[in-house]
Protein: Tripartite tricarboxylate transporter substrate binding protein
Amino acid sequence: MQRTARLLALIAGLCACALATEAAAQKYPTRPVKIMVGFSAGGPVDVVARIIGDRLGAKLGQPFVVENRAGANGMIAAEGVAHADADGYTMLACNSSTITLNKTLFKDIRYDPQGDFAPLTTVISAPLVLVVNPENPKTANIKTLADLVAAARAAPGELAYGSGGNGNLAHLAMELLSQRAGIKMIHVPYRGGAASEVGILAQEVLAVFDPLSAVPLVKGGKLRALAVSSAERLPSLPDVPTVAEAGYPGFDLSFWVGFFMPKAVPAPILETLHREIVTAAKDPAVAEKLGSQGVVNVLSPAEYAAKIAKETKELAEVVAAANIKAE
Structure:
């Protein structure tokens, strides 16, 4: 009899907790929500966080306040969110490297990218554009990805490509392509993507996986686009094939910005935030603002988790095979 009474009391307690959680979620939010950004103000992650945060605040009736904690490739902010209270009032806005790369590149990481967070959705995706300089005599006849691969095979270990630094996405994209194509090129790390773009324009390197900032240079004839790194073609460069279309199926690597919450945040809150972020990103006025940072791309939490798992495994293999060390 006493055992039955204790069991009934336990069930009643669990039901009460569930009802309290649901009630709290229905009222959510009742105070400002902090969006942690691990990078400086004005960068892609910060811009996306502020655009989405403003729309969330207007829709949900409480401010979504961006707090910049720059440093360690986004790890400071990520660690703060990973260890925050799971009450729905601390959110992380970050880029792909913070989640898919840091654990591979850094030994002192103090959060589990896949174990500590509940993924909400990506918001924008920014493919890379593989470019050469048409004015460089060495690349005058390189008009397709196949041409570049052929040239690299004819001169193994002699042709140079640039990137924004050791371990950044442009570096890894070229290493991934090199491994898939069975070629070897020399890596020239610059201090940032803008510097690598200057390097290819100055004919210091033959090729670069450039960010979307290269599109005007391609359209102006200063650079020649061979392929884009995403699974789908860029609307702004519809005639440029994807790397996958050019002979390397499954190649899909882009810089993305998305949102996360601590793992144990109640499901109703996660569902509310996912729904409202997706709704905001798809709004034409918001999408236009986001367009300066990349292509609007939203995913379900399950799709997002699968994407993270795939990219993490793939990039870890690239880093190990190429023996890449973080700067």
Remarks:
- Residues 125 and 165 are 20 Å apart (CA to CA).
- Residues 7-12, 14-21 have pLDDT under 50 and may be disordered.
- The chain has two domains: 30-125+255-322, 129-228.
